[in-house]
Design a protein that fits this description.
The structure holds two protein chains of two kinds. Chain A is α+β, with helices and mostly antiparallel strands. Chain A has three domains: 7-118, Orthogonal Bundle (Butyryl-Coa Dehydrogenase, subunit A, domain 1), CATH 1.10.540.10; 121-229, Butyryl-CoA Dehydrogenase, subunit A, domain 2 (Beta Barrel); 233-379, Butyryl-CoA Dehydrogenase, subunit A, domain 3 (Up-down Bundle). Chain A contains eleven helices and ten strands. In chain B, the strands form three sheets. In chain B, strands 11-10-9-12-8-1-6-7-13 form a nine-stranded mixed beta sheet, sandwiched between helices. Classes of the chains: A alpha+beta, B alpha/beta.
């Protein structure tokens, strides 16, 4: 087993970090406070290859893998988990088209998405729930050679700024009466597609989240992604691997932010005439956070290695996502505890880390859903 | 003018977040940097950016050169990822402890070996040693005209370049015949960010390692022994602090503070 990153991956991390420290870190608190989504920074990330990191060069991407994608997300999330969420959601659309699209769809959509000229989104969740696909209310009906989509999506990231959105709709029922879903690619500008209300979140604020309304939204049959009736596969396949990988990587960035800030604060803050880093209680807290980071890192990058080797990895991502997001919350809480009164001041990012960490919990499936999946697999 | 062959000198310097680990060898009186993560000297990135902009406008090639320990391969790969076409690592135990004169001699030998180089660019000074001597010495070794503090650089039609240099209260423009050595300051440009495509391409670009045996150098002028610079005294200042509590009314405390500042030599 080789647990080291390649020299190329290390160089990639270094160059991404350089960009993030220069272009993201100085603005992260302001974006969070104003709930501003910096599309101009996303465009720059697109030019540098971040948006289409795992897209083959023939479709305009960097031609790397999902491991490199996670390195980028971790580095961006180190300073702005909200911006990383924006990028992560965009890449769900990219991954869905890359993994389930036909050649025409790949050629049509991937170059724009990979270069960051277009923003992508994947919208599945409805008011009835994100994991309860059996109760999907959005419908797709074939009429006069066009598919007509009607329904409302909620908790949709990039709801109002996406140029290309993959949506799921119920297009029939199977012999047991269960919903049959189909995934469609819908472009902004379609008169039947409109963003609904934008939600006000307490965490991951930079990333836009809101409703998406499909009102007699007509799309041609060529918009079907992954085949008619294969929507569940497209949605779950993308979310369970690419989505959970993304949330794990974002959580890694948050944990590292907490750890680095904890170390800095502990060395600089003096109490009883000496730095608090000499206090065992603080040392334990830092040690626990370091262990959380290392464990989350191993789980996440192990799952990614499987994904890049095209091996089954859905359970590995479920475990990684559950552990990493919960670990991020623990780390953010410890960071706040160690800072005492300073931890609640908005002059410091401690509160933002905690808000962002808590907001990672429901994305791509709550911790309870993760445990249901792990338990089902373990019990057999 | 088209197709300039440009060499850019790259120096690895300790990463700014690791400065606390940089020490001074009391015997050799040189900086101890071993084992400390490095970055490309920031001004050398400006030099590389200037070279890349010239190449984009006029064509040609850009070679990155570094005299450093083997670990500097990482820094040169970064230069390749940023856009350099080829890289040369001048690495040999015999180079260890070189002062600026010995360093510039080795760099000059490498430039000569590259063939007819039109322009050599360097950062004005390094973030660690900060002597700002290498570029001028390089120009002397090569016999090329050399200029420092370049804040503007433009290739002209007739084998000349225009170099704007920064002064305290003005800019002075020079028309310089190529080949030449120019060192740049931060204001000349903003170095580009490295793209992922650049990182991938870097792995396929040539990176050669040259030792003293590969270069036309006089071994008597190599390394610590061959370096004429001898540091007189060098020490780490005592930066420990001491706290003194002042008591009394606000006015009394302010007066006491003023008195202590004056006693410490401040002209108030």
């Amino acid at each position: 087993m080789d647990f080291s990153f390649s020299k190329e991956q290390e160089l990639l991390r270094k160059t991404v970090r350089e960009f993030v420290e220069a272009e993201v870190a100085p603005m992260a608190a302001k974006w969070d406070e104003e709930d501003h989504c910096p599309v101009e920074v996303f465009r720059k990330m697109g030019e540098l290859g971040f948006a289409g990191v795992f897209v083959p060069a023939e479709y305009g991407g960097a031609g790397l893998g999902y491991t490199e994608r996670a390195i980028i997300l971790e580095e961006v999330a180190r300073h702005s988990a909200g911006l990383a969420m924006f990028l992560m959601t965009h890449q769900l659309c990219v991954a869905a088209i890359l993994e389930f699209g036909n050649e025409d769809q790949k050629k049509k959509y991937l170059p724009g998405l990979a270069s960051g000229k277009k923003i992508g989104a994947l919208s599945v969740t409805e008011p009835t729930g994100g994991s309860d696909l059996a109760n999907h209310q959005t419908t797709g009906e074939l009429a006069d050679g066009w598919w007509v989509l009607n329904g409302r999506k909620c908790f949709a990231s990039n709801s109002s700024n996406a140029d290309v959105t993959v949506v799921t709709a119920k297009t029939g029922t199977d012999e047991k009466g269960r919903n049959v879903l189909t995934a469609f690619i819908v472009e902004s500008g379609n008169p039947g597609l409109s963003p609904g209300r934008k939600e006000s979140k307490f965490g991951l604020r930079v990333s836009v989240m809101g409703d998406l309304v499909l009102n007699n939204c007509k799309v041609p049959p060529e918009s079907i992604l992954g085949g008619q009736g294969k929507g569940q596969r497209v949605a779950l396949g993308t979310i369970s691997e690419v989505g959970r990988a993304g949330m794990s990587a974002i959580s890694l960035g948050i944990i590292r932010a907490c750890l680095e800030d904890m170390v800095k604060f502990a060395k600089e803050r003096n109490l009883y005439g000496k730095p608090i880093s000499t206090l065992q209680a603080v040392q334990f807290s830092i040690a626990e956070t370091r262990v959380d980071y290392e464990a989350a890192r191993l789980l996440t990058y192990k799952a990614l290695a499987l994904k890049d080797a095209k091996q089954r990895c859905d359970l590995d991502f479920t475990i990684a996502k559950y552990f990493s997001t919960e670990a991020a919350v623990r780390a953010a809480k410890r960071n706040m505890d160690n800072m005492g009164g300073y931890g609640v001041l908005n002059d410091y990012p401690a509160g933002r880390y905690l808000r962002d960490a808590l907001a990672t919990l429901p994305s791509a499936g709550t911790s309870n859903i993760m445990k249901v999946i792990v338990a089902a697999n373990t019990l057999g | 003018m088209s197709g300039l062959k440009i060499a850019v000198c790259i120096k690895p310097v300790p990463s700014p977040d690791q400065y606390h680990r940089v020490g001074i060898d009391p015997r050799t009186k040189t900086l101890v940097r071993e084992g400390i993560p490095t970055v490309i000297n920031p001004l050398d990135k400006n030099a590389l950016e200037a070279a890349l902009q010239i190449r984009e406008k006029c064509g040609g090639t850009v070679a990155a050169i570094s005299m450093a320990p083997p670990a500097a391969e990482e820094n040169l790969r970064e230069a390749l990822a940023m856009g350099a076409d080829e890289a040369y690592l001048l690495s040999d135990r015999a180079f260890a402890g070189s002062d600026t004169l010995a360093t510039s001699m080795v760099l000059a030998a490498a430039v000569k070996k590259l063939g007819p180089v039109d322009l050599v660019l360097t950062g004005n000074e390094s973030a660690d040693g900060g002597t700002a001597q290498v570029s001028a010495q390089l120009g002397e070794w090569l016999g090329y005209p050399h200029l420092m503090h370049a804040c503007g650089l433009e290739v002209m039609e007739d084998g000349f370049i225009r170099v704007d240099t920064a002064r305290e209260d003005c800019r002075v423009a020079y028309r310089v015949k190529l080949p030449a050595v120019v060192s740049v300051v931060r204001t000349i440009n903003k170095p580009r960010f490295t793209s992922l495509m650049g990182v991938i391409a870097a792995g396929k670009k040539p990176l050669s390692v040259w030792t003293s045996g590969d270069l036309p150098v006089d071994e008597n002028f190599l390394g610590l022994e061959g370096s004429p610079t001898k540091a007189g005294d060098i020490y780490q200042p005592d930066l420990s602090r001491r706290c003194e509590l002042l008591e009394g009314s606000a006015g009394e405390i302010a007066g006491a503070v003023l008195q202590k500042l004056r006693a410490a030599g401040l002209q108030l």
